[in-house]
Amino acid sequence: VQLVESGGGLVQPGGSLTLSCITSGITFSNYWINWVRQAPGKGLEWVSVISREGSTTYYSTSVKGRFTISRDNAKNTVYLRMNSLNTDDTAVYYCAAKRVYSGPSTNLDAFDYRGQGTQVTVSS
C-alpha cells in the first residue's frame, strides 16, 4: 500500500497550492480520505475529509472557506486546493485513508494508511 503526496512547496502569504495524494494497493473507493497536518513544534491537526464517493466533505474551522478537498476515483487520487494561505498553514501535510469515518482524528495511528507527507511553507 502506498499513499504519495505531492504539490507542496514555498508560497507567499495569500497564495495558493494544490496538493495531490495518489494511492496504490488499496481499493481507493472503499476509503474516506483525510488530510492532516503538523506544524513545526505542534501536534497533529486534522484538516479535512472526503467520503468514498466524494459526496460528503468536512473541514476544520481553521481552513473552512479557504481549502477544498476533492477526489477522482478513476485516478485513485485525492486533492486539496488551498487558497488564501497564511503563515499558520505552514506544516507537513499528510493524506490518510480510513474505511470508516468516525470523526476528526489527531492521531496518525488511527488511520488505516497514510503517506509520508509533503511540506508546505508559507512565507514572504
Structure description:
- Strands 2, 4, 5, 6, 9, 10 and 11 form a seven-stranded mixed β-sheet that branches. The chain has a four-stranded antiparallel β-sheet with strand order 1-3-8-7, with no helix packed on it.
- The protein has strands at 2-6, 9-11, 17-24, 32-38, 44-50, 57-59, 67-72, 77-82, 91-98, 113-114, 118-122.
- It has no helices and eleven strands.
- It is an all-beta fold.
- A hairpin with a 4-residue loop joins strand 7 (67-72) and strand 8 (77-82).
- The chain starts with a strand and ends with a strand.
H/E topology pattern: EEEEEEEEEEE
- Individual helix count: 0
Helix and strand composition category: mainly beta
Helix content: under 10%
Average the pLDDT over all residues and give the rounded result. 96
Radius of gyration: 13 Å
Distance from N terminus to C terminus (CA atoms, Å) equals: 37 Å
Shape: globular
Task: Count all strands and give the number.
Answer: 11
What is the percentage of strand-forming residues? over 45%
For the report, how would you describe the main beta sheet?
Answer: 7 strands, mixed
Poorly predicted parts: none
